[in-house]
Amino acid sequence: MDLQDENLKPTDNMDFFLLVEDKRIPADRDMLVKSSSYFRAMFSSGMRENCQNFVELHGLSSPSVRALVNLLQTSQLSLKDTDIEDFIATANFLQVQKAIDYVKSHLDAHTCVDVLNIAEIYCIGDLEEAAYSFLVDNYFDVFRKGQYERLREEQQTQVRERRKSIKSYICAIVEYDEASADTPRKTRHLYYHDDKDDVFRPYKTVDCRVPKSSYGAAVLDNNLYIVGGYVDTGGSTDQPVSSGFRFDPMTRQWHEIKPLQQARAAFTLAATDTHLYAIGGKAEVDLFTVERYDPKDDTWTYVAPLPRPVTPEAATACMGDVYVAESAARFMSPGRLLKYCTGQGEWTDLGKIPYRLQCDSDMVSFADFVVLIGSHAIKSYNITSGEWYTMMRPMGGGYTKNRFDHVVYDGDIFFVGRVTTQRCTPSRGVWDCLAGVPGCGYRKAFVLKLKRLLPFPDEVYGGYEAGIRKATNT
C-alpha cells in the first residue's frame, strides 16, 4: 500500500520515491542529491538506482524517512511526534546535515538529554557539542524539569566543568536620577566590570522606570534573584512588596518567581548552595520571620524565625549555614552574631560582636570566614575556630553600605562604589583601587558568569518592569 504524507507538496521530480519497509515515500530526487551526501554519492556513481525512479532503503524505518523527507521539503518537523533516536540515526545514516542542524536548533529541556545520549552513541560530534551547550546555558530549566538527574555521572561532571569555565564578572545594578521639570524619575541600569581595562561597562541602557529600593538580591546557581523591596505608590510612604524575579544570564531573560509569603523591604536575601533565605526586614512593623525559597519547586516556606526582629542588612551564608549580625544600634544589649543551621532548622547565638555595628553594616563570606563591615571597623569571624580577627581598613574610609556594596570574587572582597571600587586581598592583607561604577543612590553588586557580553534586548528589563508594575497594581 502506498502511503504519502499529506504535507508533502508535489514537484516536478515527485515521480521519484523511496521504498522503505514496503512503503512508498514520494521525494524530490534533486532535493535528495542536494541535501544528502549518501544520495549524492549514489546518483553519481553509476549504480543501478541512478536509472530507476525509486531507491529501496534497508534497515531504516518508514516514519523516520518520511519525517526526514518532509523536513527537507517543508522545513517543518515536530520533534515531539517523532522518535528522536530513530530520526537522528536515519539522518546520520543518510548524511543529511540539515536534519542534524534542525535538531540542534530545536533542543529543549525535555529532549536535550536524549539527544546528547544519541549523539554519543552515533559519534555525531557537532550534535553532542550542541547538546552540552544547551545544558550549560539552560541548566536551571533542565534541572527544574527533572531532566538533569537523567544524565550519567560523567555527563553531569562535564556540564559542571563547562559551567565553571565560564568567566565570572562583578556586576552591579545602579540607580540614576533622571529628573526633569515635568517628570522626576529614577532609572536602573546593569553594568559589568571589565577587569582587562578596569572599567564598568554598561549593557544596553535599560530603563526600569519604576523606582524601587531596599530589595533583596542574591545569586544562586548563577541566577540573579531580586525579591521584595519598596515601590513608589505616589503617596507619602513607599510600599513593601512580595514580588520576586529571577534573571538568567545564560539566556538573558527575566522570569517571575512565586512571591514571598509576606511583603518585606530592608531585609537580607542570603543564598546557600541550594536555597535562598529572606531574613527579617520591614513591613508595617519590624519583622523577625524568615522564609526559605526552593528554586526547584519555586516555593517560599517559613522556617524558624529570628529570636527578635532584625532590619539591618547584615547577613550572609557560609559553608551551608546562614549568619546574621544583630545590630547593637537597634537594641540596648550588645550586638550578637546569630547562626541558622540549615540542616537542623535552628538558630544559635554565637556571642557578642567585638565592636558596635551600625544599621548600614554589611556582611560577606569567603572560605570559612564571615566578614562584618561596619562604620568603624572590619572584623572577620572564623566559623571553624570561633575566633575574631581585625582586618585592614580600605583606603579613604567611609566604606559602609551608604557608599559601597560589597561582594566576594575569587577570594577577594570588593567594595563597589560610585567614585571607586576597592579590592581587598585577605591572603596578602593588601588593598588596591579600581574603577567605580556609574550612577548614584541605591546599588547592588553581585557576581555572575556571563557567557555572551552582548547588549541586553529591550525585553530583558521590559519583563522585569512589567512584573514590577503588575505586583504594584495587585
From TrEMBL:
CDD domains given in the database record: BACK
Coiled coil regions in record: none
Gene3D superfamilies named in the record: Kelch-type beta propeller (2.120.10.80), Potassium Channel Kv1.1, Chain A (3.30.710.10)
The keyword Protein biosynthesis is assigned to this record: no
InterPro entries, A to Z: BTB/POZ_dom, Kelch-BTB_domain-containing, Kelch-typ_b-propeller, Kelch_1, SKP1/BTB/POZ_sf
SMART domains the UniProt entry points to: BTB, Kelch
Pfam families documented for this protein: BTB (PF00651), Kelch_1 (PF01344)
Keywords, in A-Z order: Kelch repeat, Repeat
Protein name, per record: KBTBD11 protein
Keyword Repeat: yes
Provenance organism: Branchiostoma lanceolatum (Common lancelet)
Residue ranges of domain BTB in the record: 14-81
PROSITE patterns according to UniProt: BTB
